[in-house]
Amino acid sequence: MSETKSIMIVGVGGQGTLLTSRILGGLALENGFDVKISEVHGMSQRGGSVVTYVRYGEKVAEPIVEEGQADVIIAFERLEALRYRHFLKKDGVLIANDWRIDPMPVIIGAAEYPDHILEDLEKEVTVYSIDATEEAKKLGNSKVSNLVVLGMAARHMDFSKEQWYSVIEHTVPPKTIDVNKAAFDAGYGA
Amino acid sequence: MGKKVMMLGNEAIARGAYEAGVRVSAAYPGTPSTEISEALVQYKDELYAEWSPNEKVAAEVAIGASMAGARAMACMKHVGLNVASDPLYTASYMGVTGGLVLVVADDPGLYSSQNEQDTRMVARAAHVPVLEPSDSGEAKEFMKLAFDYSEQFDRPFILRTTTRLAHSQSSVELQDRVERELIPYEKNIAKRVMMPAMAKARHGVIEEKMVELAEAANTLPVNRVEMRDTKIGVITSGIPYQYVREALPEASVLKLGMVHPLPAKLIADFAAQVEELYIVEELDPVIETQVRAMGIACKGKECFTLLGEYSANMLRERILGETVDAKTPAQVPNRPPILCPGCPHRSVFYILKKLGIHAAGDIGCYTLGAVAPLSVVDSTICMGASISSMHGIEKAAGREFKKNWVAVIGDSTFLHTGVNSLMNMVYNKATGTVIILDNSTTGMTGHQDHAATGWTLQKEPTNAVNLVRLCEALGVKHVQEINAFDLETLEREIKAANESDEIHVIITKTPCVLLDKRKKPVYVSLSDKCKKCGMCLKPGCPAISRQADGTVRIDDTMCTGCGLCEQLCKFQAIEKVGE
Questions:
Q1: Hey, is the C-beta of A40 within 8 angstroms of any chain B C-beta?
Q2: pTM of the entire predicted model
Q3: Going by C-beta distance under 8 Å and a sequence separation of 6 or more, which residues neighbour residue B289?
Q4: What is the pLDDT of residues B94-105, one digit of tens each?
């Protein structure tokens, strides 16, 4: 593969975008690719819209993904999926958590949360969605919803399930390996 | 070949310092520089790293360590360099003994800062050379070079990074640490006592040193010419180099690893070989202005921008005239950063809002008290400025006007530079209320210890500054601690403090919700009892939202069980579950 793959992980601060990007980056690195990951720390992380970028290939220059360039967008929340959809390539794939978190302008009544986001997006791009937060709650830890979505994304990427397991084991806190793998399975098999 | 690993730019800087044999590091946390110290401390058996109370102190610790013959460093964000600029300008005159490097992280795009200043401008003014890496691998290597050059040219060096570099990961090849003996101390007042007669002589010396370094920069390997097609030539550095490579893979590039002083001959030779010369640099036209001053024609800021980050798409558009093939962005509600669910600052701001009080704000998560629905914070300037600017408000507008004001400042920020401001209030007979939002940590930057937490960066137990006694020692007669979630006491005491004609310090002492990992019961809203009054929505908790029927819903994945909404509900419609 000579083409550089560009993946974006978008969501709300605190939903685990950092960890997800590190799993993806680790996987690409273990498979011998040059990898760059760009993260967001600091104030932007506090409940705001967050985006991390993972790019891998033979030789990667810039660490960010720009408009019209993402092969895959992994979205942990519906509104964030819509916010970044113009970053997708024409034949790009959107993997979305069918979950809603109201931003402050909506909470205080200054803006409205759009209806039918995923249905509308399906008319434009390839969308795979799952209620990952509910799936994660079933496993007793809503925080692993990111791994459910990642599991679903993994179905549309070129790495084996064993490779995913291996990098999950190396990346997540040791105590949470089992629940994270279970979450990954829930998304992978969905 | 060493082992290759993925590292953040900041982790790579720490690794580079470690491999270079750094012995002492001091820093104050500041995005995007914080992770350098956090990464460095893993090597604490072989070096010393500390959190200092502010960047001036940190820089002086590093200067002292260099004087003692060690390789030493201080790390800070761009605005931290302002605080440290006093020692910086004079350390520049003194030169170094052990290699001395200040790592300074700029924030183009203002991801987590109050301004977008360009450290290269400060460095030029202070006659301090600057290296700027463009990925993690270079970050590590340039850190080592910075120490080598610092000793070779007797200059303190700045390693400049930006948010995009600091918080991007790329692969780094690990090498071993080279231990360095202390350079034996020799008394030398002509070099180290910067009183006028000696400083006058040193000024001449450092001007010569900078000329010498600028000459050497023409051949130092840190600057690199990549000749490809000569139609377009680009002079660039740092992260923008990556955008140039992405957008213009055929263009010739002069990649500057040292952005101050500039290599005049190298630039002139490169310019002579290309048809069109572009200068691609984020923020100020530092390289461009100097290239123009050399009499070399180039294109720069007139094509690009002084603001924010660059991108490959921008270069494709502005240099090649290509348009980006992408859908137009959807119109969606913004999602600005907010105080976390369970944040103890929220209840304090709720009371201030209820009382119609203006807050002179400071730097930290609590800056978010400026936005709706809390809308309490009226100003945010720099670290420590809440207290002193409120003092100025009183001196200008009078006591009656200020009765409607308080200063809000975090515990770490108070210890950074707020203490002086409070001392000034007492000394100059001010009145008014200072609220120290004490969440027992440096919150915004990701929970770092400070002088009042009882722990050092190296995780050793130490003295914890007692904030109550500190304020009392400054001469404040009324100092009290209140739990941030005790709304009744808060309201009563803030009111009383603002009506009094003396200085009051109220310390709202409740740990950051993100530090408290215990599983707590959460709250639910009972739709049959909910009267849709919206009281619980007033503090702007992100876990609470109104449903289509007007009743509220509490998101159990976000609720932390702080109980603020339960206190506000007059109809017992919010109830604890899971206890």
A1: yes
A2: 0.96
A3: none
A4: 999 999 999 999
